[in-house]
Structure formats: structure tokens, C-alpha cells
Queue: 2 jobs
Job 1
Amino acid sequence: TIGHKMTARQRWTPTPVQLQILERIFDQGTGTPSKQKIKDITEELSQHGQISEQNVYNWFQNRRARSKRKQHGGGVGGSSNNNNGESEVETETETLNGKRKMPESLRVLPDGNNAIGTTSTTSPRPEDLCFQSPEMSSDLHLLGVLSNPRDDHSYNLYDHVEEYGM
Amino acid sequence: TIGHKMTARQRWTPTPVQLQILERIFDQGTGTPSKQKIKDITEELSQHGQISEQNVYNWFQNRRARSKRKQHGGGVGGSSNNNNGESEVETETETLNGKRKMPESLRVLPDGNNAIGTTSTTSPRPEDLCFQSPEMSSDLHLLGVLSNPRDDHSYNLYDHVEEYGM
DNA sequence: GAAATATGAATGAACG
DNA sequence: CGTTCATTCATATTTC
């Protein structure tokens, strides 16, 4: 039994009410709420549960991004996917009669402790991954960057490149 | 002009070492490194992994832009994962130090035996819980968000916060 | 209990 | 230089 209290609350989970409000606003067409709006919304939502502007902002960002492109499998081969409409698919919640799963918008967590367990799938990332020696600090000594920051004032004109061949 | 698909599937992921160097330099106060510096840095970092000047430049730009985090308020959403099993109260080093969670490029886990007692006790969320009056869109009436979408211009600079205590 | 899915959060890249 | 988009990861919740 390794069950102990571990800093809970890692990810903000919108309450149904909050979700409703958020979706409603999103549906208004406001698209990308401005900072002021975010603040406003956050304040209102705060009364329905713990929330921060960051959460609201993220939510909108995710929502928008999600609306655009759903999950696509690994499509290899000339797949002519020309859809991408930007149409707000949004709430398919109530519309569906549940063969799938119940959105957390309606979940009612009881007082008990669920204690699910370990979801540590630890998604393996077989990327290139480098990983050098555990040298902590002492690599840039040959760089004059931290020696004399006041050197020149060259203008960097990188700015936005269209295609960068990495 | 547009329409450049660009096969940039994997954005450059700084290796821990690279990150360290970058942060170190950033901390030097150099602020915006000049092109020359960028080149220099890039060269050094190249020895720790694939990287381009553009990457370095972007990194600094992002770093600086995101350093201006003005977030505040609630404070939910910190996503720092602690792998420590006993310490639940970690000393936050605040903005002065780097916070940085686990780099995305460090989840190698070749072993495969992570018996971490991550028994999420289902974060105690005594918030306002779900289950509340069926009034869904009756709360934001005082919000002008859904009334006049075309009000001001975008101005959000949240993007993401570095870390905030709760 | 683990896998599959959903979604919030982090960050690199692009755009203005 | 500020802001937003896109991609990916981490964690939560649901399902098997």
C-alpha cells in the first residue's frame, strides 16, 4: 500500500458550470478573447470554482486548436486531406446519447477516494534524444557570452523566416 | 507565399545540456544576444545536439517574451511533476531561479519499472463541485463577452506561465 | 489494473 | 518585440 497524499491538484479541471460558461462564450464567436475578456471571464468563473486566467486562456487556445484538427492517425502516403474547415464542431455532448463515454462535464465524483492508480505509461519517446554526460555547468566557458555581455549591439535580423531547414 | 507546408514535424527539442547553457546565458543578463552571440552560442550548443541559430534566436525571444508573465490570481494549473515520493512540499525557488519541469526530452526510462506509488488520491477538490443549479448561461450575463465580440483587439500575453504557487 | 481516450498545459515556431 | 498557432506531453477520466 503505497497510497499517500501526493501533492494533489495538478491539473485544473473545469467544473460543469465553468465549462458551460466557457463553451457558451466560445460559441459566441468571440474566438480569441482579449486579455480583458479573459480577466472578466476568469473572475466570473472563479465563483464557480478555482480557476486562473491562465486556465481560461489555455482553454480557449485548446478549444480553438481542437476545433480545427481532430486527432488524425499516422497517415502515410499521399492522403488528400483537404478538409479543415474551422467549423466549430464543439459540444457534441448532449447531442450524443452516450455510447462512448461521459464527458467530465457531467461526472459527479463522490466523496470517496477513487484512487485510480498508476497511469504511468510514460510514453516512450524514441526520438533522437541526445543525452550527454551529466555535466552540469561548465561548458560555455569558452564562450564569451557570459564574460562580457556588453560587447556589441549587432542587430539580429532573424525574425521570421519562412522555411528554416533544420 | 503561404502554403508552405514545411515538414517541421518535430520542433527542436533542447537537450538538458543545451537548456542549461541557454538559461545560463539568458541569466547573464545579456537579454537579447546579438547575432554574433547567437552564432557563438549555436556553435557551442551544436556540440550537444542538433541546433540552429534560428532555434537559439527563437528560444531567446520566447524566453524573454514569456518572462513577462503577469499571471496571478487563482493559481491552479501548475504542472510541475514531482518525482519525489516523500516531499510534498517543495521549496519553490521563485522566479529567480529556473523552474523548468522535466524537459520533454528526458523521459527515456529504459528500465520500464517505474513503480512509483503515484496513487493519485483523486485530488481533493472541495471546490464547488459539480451538481449545481441547471442555470448554465445565466451567470455570464454580466459579461459583455457574448454581446459584442468586436470590441477590442487581442492583447493576451499569457500564453503560459512559468510557475506559480498555489 | 491497464489501456485508450480526452483534455489541459508547456513550448517552439510563425505572424504582425 | 508582442501575440497567437501548432505540436507535444502529462495527467485525468473512462472503458475494457
Note: Confidence is low (pLDDT under 50) at residues 1-6, 71-100, 103-137, 162-166 of chain B.
Job 2
Amino acid sequence: TKRKLSIKTDDLITLPQAEPWTVLAHKKPQKGWIPYNPRTIRPAPLTDGNSVKLMSWNVNGLRALLKFEGFSALELAQRENFDVLCLQETKLQDKDVDSVKQCLIDGYENSFWTCSNAKLGYSGTAIISRIKPLSVCYGLGIPDHDSEGRVVTAEFDSFYLVNTYVPNSGDGLKRLSYRTTQWDPSLSNYMKELEKSKPVILTGDLNCAHQEIDIYNPAGNKRSAGFTEEERRSFGSNFLSKGFVDTFRKQHPNAVGYTYWGYRHGGRKTNRGWRLDYFLVSESIADDVHDSYIAPDVNGSDHCPIGLVLKV
Amino acid sequence: TKRKLSIKTDDLITLPQAEPWTVLAHKKPQKGWIPYNPRTIRPAPLTDGNSVKLMSWNVNGLRALLKFEGFSALELAQRENFDVLCLQETKLQDKDVDSVKQCLIDGYENSFWTCSNAKLGYSGTAIISRIKPLSVCYGLGIPDHDSEGRVVTAEFDSFYLVNTYVPNSGDGLKRLSYRTTQWDPSLSNYMKELEKSKPVILTGDLNCAHQEIDIYNPAGNKRSAGFTEEERRSFGSNFLSKGFVDTFRKQHPNAVGYTYWGYRHGGRKTNRGWRLDYFLVSESIADDVHDSYIAPDVNGSDHCPIGLVLKV
DNA sequence: CGTGCAATG
DNA sequence: CATTGCACG
């Protein structure tokens, strides 16, 4: 019982007056942090000039999302009228891709999918676009890192868009070393190569909350996958120090905005979240970002979508 | 969200007027067969003298059944006011038994459980009784056959009650030979041993539709697990020829009554079923059977319960 | 907690 | 077409 990803104007959602994440972000506001509330904090839409809207969402199983009946599946993302949608953790197999493509709404005819060959129903990414890319590239070009379908790149006129699902360091941090010493540098090198010809935008689930502001309980998660010292340093040295800008943090230096809430302890209700999903951009286009935002009202996954409005 | 297995008088179910299995049993009635309709074909309840009511049900996962919200779970079996309930395919692990016992309704304090040690969440039986048995025995006493938790025996004053979940011959009939040359004879021998001291009642999912009348599509299932020549012959030679009486068939020589409908093709709606669940009794007590019946209106599993009312 | 696989029926 | 376990997050 899959649903077409269509939307009518009268389906558009009116956000409720007071979102829980506004109220509950932090009982004791600290260090000048403020809750990120998309209703109040986002700039007015651009009315003049050209812009492109990119979105990114870790869907935690696309087939499950397509069956999801609750408030807002992909329809809601489409409310955003994005030009390009990047997905992670589609958990599709190659054989599923064709049937899932049938669910795409009209206008988004260009879609590019990676699946994990190593483990079925694991990982997987997609770029879905109404703009036809100039070229598309799957993986990093390093066979060691390309068997899990974690990277897809689309080249557009004025930038490369790299969509990735970074490996989770896993229970017991058994993949931490692979992640920080192999994967992150390889991805970073790949981006620096691309950047020689055009600015690069990296999006996806980077599986790292960079700073204490990016996680609800920093003290309790110092050895949790996604918030180890090693991952946070790797995030800094491989991406930020190499000239990629965390667009959300640049725009909102003090905003507490999460993009992931574990299912395990009902974290979404109480806003016990992490910011794991990012838009990083080459310094050369950092000032062209009109809005880097989070859409925490979108359900259907343990992550919510994020968006980037870029002047072009 | 487990439910207590309680029942109130006003929860008692009124059966609908025309059950589908009456109408659809066989489009072309053949060979004098008649549909088994529990509303019309069952004898009046016993009013004088002592009787005991035994029931048996392959629940296909007891934890799933306890969550089941539809028309009738164990409450409905309890409508029957049984003295003893035998379950098969509980799919419990040893560690689950204590918590499931908490769901038992008052009055059924005696319960005896077997679980598969070989494969977790597989097979498993139980005897739940308001009469305290004189003794209880787990397995057949043959280690080769006792690792899958398929047999539990309770001794009562006037009979042994053997509750079993007979091994399915499996896809490709890969376990057919084990089933017919090892299991069935071992079970039969075990029963004959018990019978030296008391009459024996065997109940459970015997995983065999004995005759053509016991299956909706005999021609199409000649090499299907449960209706092979080998299993049917084994059923005859190991049980019937050894003096155990198929009580349902004795009472209703021409009734088409099924106890199992595969999920795969929506078989229950169209009554494409099999009779796989039985009460067999020692010849010496065959005439004490007041009613051997089927309760096809009870949902929650791919099998329905069966019952035996025995004068004691 | 929830996705998806695999084995089993 | 269901149940269960298991891996992964």
C-alpha cells in the first residue's frame, strides 16, 4: 500500500502554535543558547533573484516511509517546494529502486540511487532532482569505501552536490577507527578534488554532533558513537579546517537545533536530540546561503529533514 | 501492551447467523460430505454427570496473540469454560515464560511449558489447567527428539493428556523422513507405554490432514507437507492402527471441518483449510466422548481451537 | 524502539 | 502472509 508522493494545495500543513521543541529545548538555557524554532527564526523567503532549494533527509528506510500514514511523509518535504532532495538510509536493494521510482511525483524526473551491495537493506542514498544534473558520480572512487552505497554526487551549473551517509561508529565503537582514519579523510580528499573545478556542497547524515550545543546530553555521550572526541576532531580537521562551512552554525551561532532523536527513549517528545545532519559548503559560496534550516515538524523517521536555500 | 486474559459475561460472543465456512465449504458437495457448522451440529451440553472439557490451539506465537486486538483472542477460548487448554507453537523462550504466566486468568494456576532450546522463538507447547495434574512430563524421554519443546504430558485421574506439536515436514519435504520414520513412531511408542497404566488422550497440531475430506484441495497438495502419502500412512499406522481414535471423525464421519487456513492466500475467508489439529483417544474411552468439536470463529492465529468434552 | 533481513510455516 | 530472532542504529 504505497502512496503516491503527490500533494495538493489544501494539504499544506499549518504548524501548531507552540512546538514542543521550543518549550523543551533546554530547561535551563545555558551559555546564551537559544532554541531553534523554524517558525520564528527563519528569514523571509527570497523574492528577487535566483535561488535553489536543496533538502536532505535520513529517512531510516524508504519503503517504511512510503507506508507511513501519520502527519507528514515525503508530502511534507514537498510542501517545501525543493529543487533537489537528498536521502540517506533508504535501505533499498537495487531490485527495489525501479518500483520506488514509480512513487516520485511529477517534476522530479531525475533520480540517482546507491544501494549497499555488502549488506542488503542497509545504508543507501538518493538524489532526487527537478533540475537535470550535468553529471552524476557514485561512490568515492575507492572500492574499499564504495560497497555500502554511501555517496552519490550530482554536478550542477554552479556547484557539486555530494550526498552522503557517513558510517556510524557502531556499538562498542568498533568502527570508530575506520570512520575517522579512513572514511572521513577519503571523503574530504574527494571533496577537495571536486573543489578544484567548482564549489562543493556536502549534505547528509554526517553521524557526528560537532559541539556540545549540538547534542542534548554532551556529558553522558562522550563515548557514544557520534560524539566521541575522535569523531568531533575528525569533523573539524577533515571538513571545517579544510574550508567547508557548517552553514547552520554560521547562520545561528547559538541556536540549539537537532535533526535526530533516537527512538529508544522517546527522545523526540522531550527533544533529546542530536544535530547529525548538515549542509557544509565551500567557503567561496558560504555568503550565498540565504537560509540553512531544520524542519523538525516532519515525522516518519528518527531524523528530520534539513534545508538549504542558496542564491545562485 | 499485553492484555489480561480475563472475560466478563457480557463479552460473550454471539455467533453471526451464517458463517462463511458453512456456505463455502465446498461449492460442489461431494461424496455425501457436509459442512461442519458448530452452531447446528454440536450436541446439547451435558447437564447430568461429570465431564471435563479440554481444548487445544496452535496459537502461532503466543506473544503476538496476547497483543491481538481483533475479534477474540484467548478470551474467546475462555468463553468455552474449558478445564484444560493445550497450546502449540507458543514460540516462547524459557526467559519469556514467567512474564506470560502473569497473563493467565485466575483459576488456571497450573501451567506447564516447553520451549525449543535448539531454535529460539520456535515451536513450544503449554498445558494450562484449572485441575492440578497428578504428574507432568516434558518431552518423549528421547534426547534426539526433545530439544525443540514439542511434547508435554499431564497425568490426570483417569487419563494421560499428551500435548504435541508434530514437526512440519518443511519446504522441499526435507524433514519428511525424520518426521515419518523417527518422530511419529517415537511418539506412538511413548503413548503405548503410557497406555499400559491409563487411557491416553493425544492432542495438538499433528501436522497431517489424514484423508481427502480433511483438506480443501487434496489433488493439489499430494506433495505438500502435511498431506503426503507418507505422512498420511504414518498417521494411520502409528496412531489409528495402534488403537487411537480420531474423535472428530468418529463423531462426524462426513463433516468437512478445518482447523488451519494458511495466511498466504487468504485461505480463511474462502475456507480453503486443512484439518491438522486433533483429539485422539485410547479406544477404551472413545465412547466417553460427548463432543469433539472445532471453533472456527476464533481468530488470532492461522489455526483455530478445537475442543473435547469427555464424560468422566 | 524501529527498520530491514532471514528462517519457518 | 504471518510469526519469530537478529543486525544495525
Note: The two ends of chain A are 39 Å apart (CA to CA).
